[in-house]
Request: fold
Amino acid sequence: MLVGLTTLDGELLASEKYILGGRVSPDDVLDDLDAALNRLLARVGRFRGDITALGFCTTGVMDVDAGLIYMNHNMGWAEVRLRELAMVRLGLPIVIEMDANAAALGEHWRGAAHGLEHFVYVIVGTGIGAGILLGRRIWRGARGAAGEVGHTVVLPGGPLCGCGKHGCLEALASGLAIQRKATAALKLGRATILESLEGDISAQAVADAARGGDSVARQIMDEAGYYLGLGLSNLVTLLDPQALVLGGGLGWGAFDVLEAPMRRAFDEHLNYWADRKMLLTRAALGEYAGLYGAARAALDLAPGHLQQEVRR
Ligand SMILES: [Zn+2]
Reply:
């Protein structure tokens, strides 16, 4: 969990990171958050009454307007009415947002997409997702499920995805896909420095090995980058954004390794790529993008919610 205090202008005053461990029930999370807020406030000499609102971003399926999280696999949450719980336990209005959308808002407010009208923030980590900003507003779709670029199919009949379909972008270019390919290469006995690593091979370790010139790791990262470029070129053809901003553990941490094969895929699959002048860039805020975006979401929505609470 990453917790921070920002000013209304988006200046980060203080932040801290802690491991949730087994404490993942909504009540536990809010209690830990409560304690973290008090520590942060003490550090910067502010008081509880100085907080206007809380923004909370996480993965999962949620109704942002209702402050309701339908499902979050990581924490095992189902039907959690976080807005009401937070009001009771913290006495503060809370605005929830999906991780990719929050990160997009953060990069738009204080990061690589500042001032843009249309752009897509792509999280490449364990999975792949996107926050789509069109006309400076998040594009949510009819059921709030827009942006699931990881589950667009880029290789019919390809590897099985966690969603049950075959050949999704996520099954070919995510951190999990990279891990799986590295493990398979080792089983085949291919000569690679990945052999010398203890335990499970992380996608970051594969990226490091690729940087170091390991040919097996390079091939794996090359393929992942190419499929990422292929999937995103479809998105670009549809939406015509000004920029693609890559974040998430791999999108941010392995951008240098992924960029060249992505551009190769753009050259092959995007019409008039050279004329489009679309910016492909690494997120500027790194893992803090979601934190800034959650704060931004809270500022955008808090007044309405405050009025609602008063009306009740
Ligand atoms: Zn899928």
